[in-house]
Amino acid sequence: MTRNPADFLRGIIGQTIWHVNAGGVTWPSFSLALGGKVPRQRPLKNPAVSDEFRENAGEMAFLVWSTWRLEMEDEIVATSAQSDLAASKLEELKGLSVEEVVCISPAWDVVVRFSNARILRLFCDHLAPMDGVDTNWELCVRGEQLCVGPGAFFEFDAAI
Fold first, then answer.
1. pTM of this prediction?
2. What b/e string do you get for 89-121 counting C-beta neighbours within 10 Å, with b at 16 or more?
3. Distance CA 18, CA 25 (A)
4. What is the rounded (10 degree) CA torsion for 76, 150, 24, 63?
5. Across the chain, where does the E strand assignment appear?
């Protein structure tokens, strides 16, 4: 049986986001730490993140490199085209749980619905190898990593 990104991504349903890493030099990319907290062998030294995240990694990590939009009901809350001010809107995902995930081929665009009616839409727009990041999004779950992009390409591997 062939695995695909949609099946793997459904593993985050019911999980709670406990850390959001957004803003700064990596903008507009961001990451979400979900599930349990796994103690790090070596704590991070980055003073810009919480003590909790320096000491622990997420059991699941969702990294977004592509264009994205955050919505609530009939309102656009933030987009990847905005400045770091939008990072504070992503921070509001902290403490929310994932209620539904839809992943649409062939590019594996994603729609995530959260417990407070927030909706995150990912538009997988990295199509060809380019300088920098080719990946549209990544999901690491318990030692396994899925990298999606460029284009319709995806690959499962051992997490780093």
1. 0.91
2. bbebbeebebeebebeeebbbbebbbeeebbbe
3. 22
4. 80
5. 17-22, 30-39, 56-64, 67-72, 75-79, 98-104, 109-114, 118-123, 137-141, 144-148, 154-158
**How much is the pLDDT for 50?**
83
Beta-carbon-side half-sphere exposure of residue 31 (alpha carbons within 13 Å): 16
Among 119, 67, 66, 110, which Cα is nearest to 92's?
A: 119
Beta-ladder partners of 128: none
Neighbours of 63 (CB within 10 A): 19
The token duo for 1 is: 């049986």
Domain of residue 94 covers: 5-158
Residues ≥6 apart with Cβ < 8 Å to 26 = none
pLDDT tens figures, 72-103? 988 999 999 997 678 999 999 999 999 999 99
Q: What parts of the chain have a pLDDT lower than 70?
A: 1-2, 84, 129-132, 159-160
- Total domain count for the chain? 1
